[in-house]
């Protein structure tokens, strides 16, 4: 991991525990972007005319990374854009199950369109709360973040598979933004029907790139209406495919090239190694925070957790951490810290040192 850390100059200046806010830009990614910008400067349309074939390459890379079908995978600039396009194609009489306090970009697009919404509480009994709500309300759709952005609570994906078996007609939509890149994920084997994710966090892919993947049967349930020139892959007089509705207009080749590179880097490191490293940080950080009584009971009682923690603390503590070079975020009623695979023992030690001052 020392070699990996050398790719991120910021780690020489700060104890960076804020991947849940924004991932890092590696030197390799910076070099790639500079090189591609040079091509755009020197070649102009000779460069951008290759856009269609290149975006197809990116789409293939995404589909292989998450085990989705290529024809049902689209590139999108961010989660919110893709999710709003998706929600606009759903019948207004549909009912939704949401998590109370989930990421605003998940809940707001549903709530503001006037759908009838039900809610499950986010606590140590998350899965039981969801199952009870499904049995009670029989929602048409269930939308949620796989990892909660404030608390770091991670839903049991085996539970999601069982939920889909029990409610096969319910469409399950997952926001993978705080999850993708932390472990191997196989979409076709999952209980999820639709996945979307922005990739600037745990994949360290920079801004402006995201993706959506759907399962084939979803095309009969959701009818997105957005359209633009590239929705037909620049072929005139053709009927846009379902997935093309998420790709109107031109695509940012450099942003999506950055995503392709980020996927390659993650695979080169090895998702199994990344998962092992993150499990290590989840366990030891939780133990340290628990011993200092910094965690809510809901987190303490969960058997498994992500590497995102919300510890008890005020704005003053946040500023003290920053003054000592420890980068975190103010979220909810506390301070959110998040560990990535490039963090090391010194990073945790530094955090604890400042907390104990």
- Which second-level CATH architecture of the largest domain applies? 3-Layer(aba) Sandwich
Please report the distance between the alpha carbons of the first and last residues: 29 Å
Low-confidence stretches: none
How many β-strand runs? 12
Structural class: alpha/beta
Whole-number mean pLDDT: 95
CATH class of the largest domain: Alpha Beta
Tell me the strand order in the biggest sheet. Answer: 2-8-7-6-5-3-4
The figure for the number of domains is 2
Contiguous helical run count = 13
* CATH superfamily descriptor of the largest domain: Type I PLP-dependent aspartate aminotransferase-like (Major domain)
Percent of sequence in beta strands: 5-15%
Determine Rg (CA atoms, Å): 21 Å
Globular, elongated, flat, extended or rod-shaped: what is the shape?
globular
Helix content range: 40-55%
Biggest sheet layout = 7 strands, mixed
CATH T-level fold name of the largest domain: Aspartate Aminotransferase, domain 2
Give the topology string: H per helix, E per strand.
HEHHHEHEHEHEHEEEHHHEHEEEH
